[in-house]
Amino acid sequence: MSQKPLAVQKIEIIGNQLALLWSDGREDYFPQHFLRMYSPSAENPEKLGEIGASSFLKTTVRKYADVSLVGWQIIGGYAIQLYFNDGHHTGIYSFEYLRQLGDLLRFQNLSSG
């Protein structure tokens, strides 16, 4: 028996976060600057798994602190393309990648709490 593919049921901007409701009932809330920082585009080196020293991370967070979303588009049934106010729009966020980012945020929240 194959597992049903993961899908996003609802997308909404709430304050400075992008809220996603997944088909399995999970909800993720992503700070908009965090999504810009982890854009999976070729021009953006700050991808998940490529973060090194904490000073680099702090510099990167400051770099995107004022960036916000201006829109999005579902790509096929597998990804979301996000549009940011700094003109960036080339990152295609697969649903799988967004779940990984959501897991990272959950881990960070548990670790800091």
Relevant terms:
single chain, 113 residues, alpha+beta, NE0471 N-terminal domain-like, 3-stranded antiparallel beta sheet, 6 strands, 30% helix
Give structural notes.
It contains three helices and six strands, in the order βββααβββα. By secondary structure, it is an alpha+beta fold. It has a single domain, classed as NE0471 N-terminal domain-like (2-Layer Sandwich), CATH 3.30.2020.30. The protein has a three-stranded antiparallel β-sheet. A three-stranded antiparallel β-sheet has the order 4-5-6. The chain starts with 7 loop residues before the first strand and ends with a helix.
Can you give me a brief rundown of this structure?
The chain has about 110 residues and is of the alpha+beta class. It has helices at about 30-35, 55-65, 95-110; strands at about 10-15, 15-20, 25-30, 70-75, 80-85, 90-95.
